[in-house]
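Thread: quick sanity check before group meeting

JM: Hey all, I'm pulling together slides for Thursday and realized we never actually wrote out the predicted structure for the chain we discussed last week. Dropping the sequence here so it's in one place. If anyone has concerns about the input, flag it before I start.
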Amino acid sequence: FASLSNKENMELVEISSSRSFKKGETIYRAGDEGGTLFVLYTGRAKLYRLTAAGKEQVLRLVEPGEFIGELSLFSSLPLTDNAQALEDTTMCVLQGQRLKTLMAKYPSIAFKVMDELSRRLEKAENRIEDISLSSVTKRVAGALLELSEGKQEFSLPMTKGDLASQLGMTQETLSRKLSTLQEEGLILLKGHRKVIIQNKSELEATSLEE
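JM (edit): ok, ran it. Output follows.
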């Protein structure tokens, strides 16, 4: 909500509280009562769902400034996904009914939520298209470029298992593709999570292959 006015932010603060979660701690579970908006202040979290067989499907990574739990604000249905802290995390928790009252008073708050939901929907549609139509190598290359945020050296913000789940592949497949990209001189892997991009132009070309 960085684009809101000072007055709007002050009123948001009045209806919010702060909660801290340790690494690995559950923020909420599917089936929990909704009606609360969680805004990530510090740390990282992941959203995921469990299949009937108990397999975890990672939906997205949650970064500081992003919010979760918003869909339950507009329906009486319980939460449909699970949220877990990937590291020590602080959340600002906003009461749903009071937030909706503020949205009516300040339409800019509602527009901010709608804007975020629109961008999130677009990313979800692109992710579905990638999983359906793109090769495994293209998906991995694209994910590395996105996670690098323009830096040559970076650390994966989640485990390889979580990243593989988000990309619609097994961890073994992801590990093989990372090893292949390293053998081809496009990246260098250091430790469990550190990645160094050695040939960015070739990695970009790989991410755009048909």
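AS: nice. The CA atoms of residues 38 and 79 lie 12 Å apart. The chain has two domains: 6-113, 132-204.
JM: adding both to the slides.
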